[in-house]
């Protein structure tokens, strides 16, 4: 059974049936039609047995912002197979074939949401972003001193320019975020039943937004974005105005978010869990774009059994990268997953060294640590 690109509408429909069965989604006809449209825009890989689809996955083409620069990204989604074909190596074939195709398309990094972290670690993926959720009881909805910001309630259409503007502004504070196009906002972010408010300053300039819903006396905040502290406080005060309507508020936030620290009672419930995974598809190209600046030459010995073109020793000096033909001697040894997590800003080289995931001289570890010290914290508020 070989991996092939699915381009026929009949195969697409079979793929939707497979996903519906594997994930027990119960797609409506409208959802099936939407998925069919998306598949025509994405790369779909499948494996057939006796002309019937046994397993498949999709690759979404997008861009991500890593430490202020944009990189072409392939998003893995809808990885699935029928139970009778599982544990036969089909997903391994699909993933490794997708790495080849992504490299051909110039996608230097790949993201996915894992059903099981340990499974995808086998293929070079590593956690790069956590998700934090606050749960705030009604009794703790205490307002800040009134700021200068004012709140404007808008429809999705009315708020979209401000949402896009503010989202792009806040990207400068994080690493790993998705470059949201207008199409992405409309097809992936917008959800019927959500509310949108924009916070403006005294000069009527947008400084923050809130995307939320209210269900069963719970205010569910999907995004709480602010580019000034005044906007952060004004939006919080708006949330507090719902104290007669809700028993609690849940807020999704970046791991580095400090809202709890600002509250009268910071001892609110906070949950943090590993969320999305990433892996570099083309190490040499990624490092060349990344321009890792070191004070002296640094050698990185990279292992990557699922994408063998990445294996080898990379000499890094003054932002320039050279893959050594003879393999080189010494340097740091690490696999592609930990390397990805370091360069995106999720973990530090020192922590991974003492965790046994980087091997080499401590002076080289410290040199790599110095080179990535200004990488911003990771955040990924999207899903696919």
From TrEMBL:
Pfam families: Acetyltransf_17, Acetyltransf_9, SCP2_2. This is Predicted acetyltransferase. The lineage of its organism: Bacteria, Bacillati, Bacillota, Bacilli, Bacillales. It comes from Priestia endophytica DSM 13796. It comes from the Bacteria. Coiled coil: none annotated. PANTHER family: N-ACETYLTRANSFERASE EIS (PTHR37817). InterPro entries: Acetyltransf_17, Acetyltransferase_Eis, Acyl_CoA_acyltransferase, Eis_dom, GNAT_dom, SCP2_sterol-bd_dom_sf. Residues 1-146 form the N-acetyltransferase domain.
């Amino acid at each position: 059974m070989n991996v092939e690109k699915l381009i026929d509408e009949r195969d697409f429909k079979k793929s939707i049936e497979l996903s519906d069965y594997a994930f027990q989604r119960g797609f409506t006809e409208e959802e099936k039609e939407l998925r069919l449209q998306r598949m025509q825009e994405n790369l779909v890989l499948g494996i057939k047995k006796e002309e019937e689809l046994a397993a498949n996955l999709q690759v979404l083409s997008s861009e991500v912002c890593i430490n202020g620069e944009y990189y072409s990204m392939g998003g893995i989604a809808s990885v699935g197979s029928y139970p009778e074909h599982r544990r036969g190596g089909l997903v391994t074939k699909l993933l490794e074939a997708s790495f080849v195709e992504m490299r051909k398309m110039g996608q230097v990094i790949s993201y996915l949401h894992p059903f099981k972290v340990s499974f995808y670690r086998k293929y070079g993926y590593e956690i790069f972003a956590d998700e934090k959720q606050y749960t705030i009881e009604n009794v703790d909805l205490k307002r800040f001193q009134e700021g200068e910001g004012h709140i404007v309630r808008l429809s999705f259409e009315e708020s979209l320019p401000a949402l896009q503007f503010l989202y792009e502004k806040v990207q400068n504070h994080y690493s790993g975020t998705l470059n949201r196009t207008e199409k992405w906002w409309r097809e992936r972010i917008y959800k019927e039943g959500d509310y949108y408010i924009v916070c403006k300053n005294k000069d009527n300039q947008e400084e923050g937004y809130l995307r939320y819903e209210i269900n069963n006396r719970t205010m569910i905040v999907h995004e709480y974005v602010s580019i000034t502290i005044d906007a952060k406080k004004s939006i919080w005060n708006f949330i507090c105005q719902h104290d007669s309507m809700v028993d609690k508020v849940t807020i999704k936030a970046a791991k580095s978010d400090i809202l709890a620290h600002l509250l009268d009672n910071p001892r609110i419930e906070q949950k943090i869990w590993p969320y999305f995974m990433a892996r570099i598809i083309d190490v040499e190209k990624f490092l060349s774009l990344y321009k890792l600046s070191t004070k002296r030459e640094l050698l990185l010995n990279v292992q990557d059994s699922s994408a063998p073109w990445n294996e080898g020793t990379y000499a890094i000096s003054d932002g320039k990268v050279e893959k050594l033909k003879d393999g080189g001697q010494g340097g740091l040894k690490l696999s592609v997953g930990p390397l990805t997590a370091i360069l995106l800003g999720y973990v530090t080289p020192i922590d991974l060294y003492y965790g046994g995931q980087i091997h080499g001289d401590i002076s080289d570890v410290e040199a790599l640590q110095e080179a990535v010290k200004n990488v911003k914290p990771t955040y990924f508020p999207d899903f696919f």
